[in-house]
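Possible regression after last week's pipeline update?

I re-ran a chain I had predicted before the update to compare outputs. Posting the input and the new output here so someone can diff against the archived version. Not blocking, just want to make sure nothing changed silently.
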Amino acid sequence: MTTLTHISPVIPWAPKNLTLHNLSESQIELRWSNTYLDHCLEHLVQYRSDRDHSWTEQSVDQRRSFSLPSVDGRKLYTFRVRSRHNPLCGSAQHWSEWSHPIHWGSHTSKESIEPPSLFALEAVLIPLGSMGLIISLICVYCWLER
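New output (post-update):
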């Protein structure tokens, strides 16, 4: 009599050595390496900018690269990748852990905040200064009338 034993599914290691390359001013390419044959894996890339609340996901079959055609250099992007076996090479149910994240771009902190324009300062300071001058003149007039 033959007995069957349950074998745990093989879960690939998380992709590693993530790198980003500028393809043009507004296009970047994410590349990574893995420990399995390329034709046996499918990948899931997640990315978001510092202004996004949720991740965008993109499936990548049998390649170790993903290109994002439109990026804004004023945003900070975060990318991560995970892998699983495709149905031709094994169980396609279990994803690997996420790779370590990689970042591209700049923070929206001090570097990307534009200094207030001269027009905005004039729009606030001139009316406030005028009001202060009028109130001061009224106070001086009332003091002299006593």
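Follow-up from reviewer: compared with the archived run. Helices lie at 118-145. Marking as no regression found.
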